[in-house]
User: What shape does this take?
Amino acid sequence: MTMTKVLSDLEDEAGNKEQMAHRNPEKREGSRGSHPAEPMGTNSEIARKLKQYYDELVSDEVPDRFSQLLEALEHQEPSRPDANED
Amino acid sequence: MSSAQSFRDGLLAAVPTLRAFAVSLAKNTDRADDLVQETLVKAWDKQDSFQQGTNLKAWLFTILRNEFYSQMRKRKREVEDSDGAITARLSVHPSQDGSSDLTDFRKALALLPEDQREAIILIGASGFSYEEAAEICGCAVGTIKSRVSRARSRLADILGIEGENDFGPDAIAVQVTNSPAVA
Assistant: This one.
């Protein structure tokens, strides 16, 4: 699958849905094409734990080093800086 | 200047989810943070190749994933030698309140092969579509689906969860349509 293909799929959800329907004939109406809101099902214990696991990680406090790094990158010109702030 | 600024803001906004993905891949927060840092530097250097209007998050995940596998290849011997040690000191989140079942989940996740772990994270947690996940991993959509399916069965096995083992490759799509949350 080419990049262009994927991008055009993303831009055209309707077309994509049609394509997915071809791929998954059993799939019923009402599915969300390529963007499954709950790809693993809401009843799935694994899906629930996976989300819980990931959400904890996402809500983890972000170390300052990243904003400092980005600031440093923004104020330096294209040449690659020595990124180690610590 | 303002375009550099908005690009920077975009990168900064993506850091929490990049870190979550990195920890999931690397199984270790120090390595994960190094991966995120390397990703930000690479993204900055390559910002001209990012197409405005396309998915910045997917682009960043692709860079991070490539970086992870390239580091993996470099450190392969080290990783093999200390795999047990790495698993033993899996990062434990300070704010996890009595979620001992999540500790088990974390360990189970760490036992999955990389390709299955990244697939189930991208689809089940990071919110990517199958097409986006396939693009990020450089493989076919069907491959992602089967990896997610295998990851799920494997996790069910390890965790002793009943009722999730019988799903074939198409079960995930079926699950979606049956899910009441999908309006």
Q: What stands out?
A: The radius of gyration of chain B is 17 Å. The mean pLDDT of chain B is 83.
